Amino acid sequence: MFALSYDSKDHMLYLLKDREVRVLDNAQVLYAPTGFKGNRSVWFTHVGSDEFYSRWRQLRHGLKRDIKLI
């Protein structure tokens, strides 16, 4: 398992823009920030999957269009 987490073919590097949010499913993703120069503020919170999908469906319905989940 340890070797899998360090295999670069399974890594995804994503640079967030200012005020951008990324939601991760911790049951499926191992989060590991890399080195960074400058100011950074990282906030974490927990949202249960039932609540997340319920609100996602409400938002989709309210906007009357599909919202892509990556």
Q: How would you describe this structure to a colleague?
A:
- This protein has 70 residues and is an all-alpha fold.
- The chain has one domain (2-63).
- The chain is 29% helix and 0% strand.
- It has 2 helices and no strands.
- It has helices at residues 2-6, 49-63.
- The protein is extended.
- The model has no long low-confidence stretch (mean pLDDT 76).
Brief descriptors of the model:
70 residues
Short description:
The protein has two helices and no strands. With 70 residues, it is an all-alpha fold. The longest helix is centred in the C-terminal third of the chain and has 15 residues.
Chart the SSEs and their pairings.
Layout: H1 2-6, H2 49-63
Task: Indicate the overall shape.
Answer: extended
Backbone structural class: mainly alpha
Name the average pLDDT. 76
Number of helices: 2
The end-to-end span amounts to: 24 Å
Estimate percent helicity: 25-40%
Number of domains: 1
Order of helices and strands: HH
- Based on CA atoms alone, the radius of gyration comes out at 15 Å
Give the total of beta strands.
0
- Low-confidence parts: none
Strand content: under 5%
| Biggest sheet character | none
